[in-house]
Design brief:
Blueprint (H helix, E strand, L loop, with lengths): L17 H4 L1 H7 L26 H20 L11 H4 L5 H8 L18 H20 L5 H27 L8 H4 L2 H6 L5 H16 L3 H14 L7 H11 L2 H23 L3 H4 L1 H8 L7 H12 L7 H7 L1 H25 L6 H15 L8 H11 L3 H27 L6 H27 L26 H15 L9
Helix pairs in contact: 3-7, 5-7, 6-7, 6-11, 7-10, 10-11, 11-13, 12-13, 12-18, 12-19, 16-17, 16-22, 18-19, 19-20, 19-22, 21-22
Length: 502
């Protein structure tokens, strides 16, 4: 089946409107007259047959640009780099992009990895150098310019373009559900964290990788996901759901093509640095291996509870893990691995083959839940995936409220660490971290419920199968799975043998 929707087969002839399909939005719409009627005049279905400029897609793209512009304004107090009186924390405008321009010696013209170890995967280092070195060259010839500010604004422009491109990809994947992408466009997390780091580079590449897979181009999908994985590691996790879904559909060749090209791409991007500058290239892996429990994680919450409710003078299990980092690493990896096995079993045993967006969200969310590091901007990883997995506003907004609370508490923690005078009691920060964790777990539970009960899935009410599935879209389950189910059904329905007298 084609990955493009067909009128009358894959869904209605007009785009879905959330005031009809989303219970939360439908309830709110009562305040302004109720859901959109069947004969209402809309941008996509205007009166008289003429088409108007402001379609749903263009409105969503414009809202994305508005959110990014507001983000730039929110970060503007920190753009000059003259951070005095801890204003980067009191005004919530800290960004790694500006801080690392100096910490990574880009302001001196140092080439990433060749002249200085970089704490990020290589494609992010390449990106930093591609923008930072020209800024330094311009600054050398023009001493009056603020190099750090130029560097930040260059990054904000390119990362903003990648965010807009990500929304365009979401719109392309959901042509009959354009308002789903408004979840990303209007997300408070995007407003607050878009340029805190370079995560939008990996997000944009991963989005194009998913689009290539949906358009039945597995080799291109592998290249794009490999590039994304060379910028941040998490996009490589999406290859796992692709493999399991292909196994269920009996289309392993497509999945192995995507995985193979992704591996080749990652190796090809890394080799030019890994061979001549091995020690500097290895800095990213050393940092992640040696890093202790970081703020806001499951392990941080557990360590706090150990100290709060544990026996005085004795170290609790989480406190012990913080002092035994290798064990912490193994436990974190093991829990993530078990979660992936559970997600794989769910994908194979669910009544219908799950959608790729659903499994991708569950895998990346599981990684964050069990990771020992959960930086404030990592929320961006989940934004496009939740749009594809579960485009419903109620639980999404609850999660975003929790993220905003964590954002405020996190900056209070940063300010307290800098000044030595706590802004909030430690329990407030732990509560905010717990709310973030709970809402992400709740989203996972809701996604799993919709996998087990496909009739609850909003996307399946518009598309018959998986609009992101590519070559898997519309295919039946593999014969081996049908035989296993048939054998299992026969075994369960067979009556127990009646004992006979001897």
């Amino acid at each position: 089946m084609s990955t493009q929707s067909t009128p009358g087969i894959d869904g209605p002839d007009v785009p879905d409107h959330p005031s009809r399909s989303d219970g939360f939005v439908r309830g709110l719409s009562g305040l302004i007259g109720g859901p959109l009627g069947d004969h209402a005049v809309t941008r996509e279905r205007p009166s008289g047959g003429e088409r108007r400029f402001w379609t749903a897609m263009r409105i969503v793209l414009a809202l994305t640009c508005l959110t990014l512009a507001l983000h730039w304004v929110q970060k503007s107090p920190c753009q000059d780099g003259a951070w005095v009186n801890n204003e980067q924390y009191t005004r919530f405008c800290y960004t790694d992009v500006l801080a690392l321009y100096y910490a990574e010696r880009l302001n001196e013209g140092a080439v990433p990895y060749a002249d200085h170890p970089v704490e990020y995967p290589v494609l992010t280092g390449y990106f930093m150098g591609a923008l930072g070195l020209p800024v330094h060259a311009i600054g050398e010839g023009n001493p009056g310019i603020n190099q750090g500010q130029w560097f930040y604004n260059a990054n904000a422009l390119v990362l903003g373009a990648l965010a807009v491109a990500t929304v365009a990809v979401l719109l392309a994947l959901r042509r009959r559900r354009p308002w789903d992408a408004a979840l990303f466009a209007l997300a408070p997390a995007l407003l607050l964290t878009a340029t805190v780091n370079w995560d939008l580079l990996a997000i944009g590449l991963a989005a194009f990788g998913l689009l290539a897979w949906a358009r039945s181009r597995p080799a291109l999908a592998g290249v794009l996901l490999g590039l994304a994985g060379a910028a941040k590691m998490w996009p490589l996790f999406i290859l796992g759901p692709i493999l399991v879904l292909a196994l269920r559909a009996g289309r392993l060749r497509a999945a192995l093509t995507a995985i193979g090209t992704a591996v080749v791409t990652v190796v090809a991007v890394n080799l030019p640095v890994a061979i001549p500058y091995r020690e500097n290239w290895n800095r990213f892996f050393e940092l992640n291996t040696d890093r202790p429990i970081d703020w806001g994680t499951l392990w941080y919450i557990g360590r706090y509870l150990d100290g709060k409710f544990g026996e005085p003078g004795s170290a609790g299990p989480f406190q012990w893990l913080d002092a035994n980092i290798p064990t912490l690493n193994y436990l974190s990896y093991a829990l993530f691995g078990l979660a992936c096995l559970g997600i794989g079993a769910l994908a194979l045993l669910a009544p219908r083959r799950p959608r790729l967006g659903q499994l991708a969200f569950l895998v990346v969310a599981a990684f964050l839940i069990f990771s020992k590091v959960w930086s404030q901007q990592f929320v961006l990883w989940l934004l496009p995936l939740i749009v594809l997995a579960r485009p419903k506003w109620g639980a999404f907004l609850a999660w975003q409220v929790a993220e905003v609370c964590y954002f405020v508490a996190f900056y209070g923690e940063l300010l307290g660490a800098q000044t030595g005078q706590p802004v909030f009691p430690e329990g407030v920060f732990v509560l905010a971290a717990s709310l973030r964790l709970v809402t992400v777990v709740a989203l996972c539970v809701l996604v799993v419920r919709e996998i087990l009960h496909p009739e609850r899935d909003a996307v399946r009410r518009t598309y018959l199968d998986d609009p992101d599935g590519g070559l898997l879209n519309g295919t039946a389950d593999a014969p081996w799975l049908d035989r296993w189910r048939s054998r299992r059904t026969t075994t369960e329905s067979s009556p127990a043998p009646v004992p006979t007298a001897t």
